[in-house]
Amino acid sequence: MPIAPPVPPAIRHDFSPEMWATDDAADAPRRQVTVLGLFGWGLGALLVALAVVAAVVLNS
């Protein structure tokens, strides 16, 4: 008796290397959103760090 249920073929296909290795024009918008998302996260982290530094300086 298996401990975990078998993974359905659709989910197994989503994580296959063949899917991630494709580099066609259909993936361009998703890649652009990912880059913009990472830029947004970095900008947010920078703003949080600046706010923490400003709070420490103003409270000292």
Provide an overview of this structure.
The structure is a single chain. With 60 residues, this protein is mainly α. It has a domain at 32-59. The chain is 72% helix and 0% strand. It has three helices and no strands.
- Rounded mean pLDDT is 73
Order of helices and strands: HHH
Question: How would a crystallographer describe the biggest sheet?
Answer: none
Task: Please count the helical segments.
Answer: 3
Global morphology? elongated
Transmembrane segments: 38-58
Keywords: Membrane, Transmembrane, Transmembrane helix
Features:
membrane, transmembrane helix, mainly alpha, 3 helices, elongated, about 60 residues, transmembrane
Helices and strands, with pairings:
Layout: H1 9-14, H2 17-21, H3 28-59
Transmembrane segments: 38-58
Keywords: Membrane, Transmembrane, Transmembrane helix
Provide a concise account of the structure shown.
This protein is mostly helical and 60 residues long. The protein has helices at residues 9-14, 17-21, 28-59. The model has no long low-confidence stretch (mean pLDDT 73).
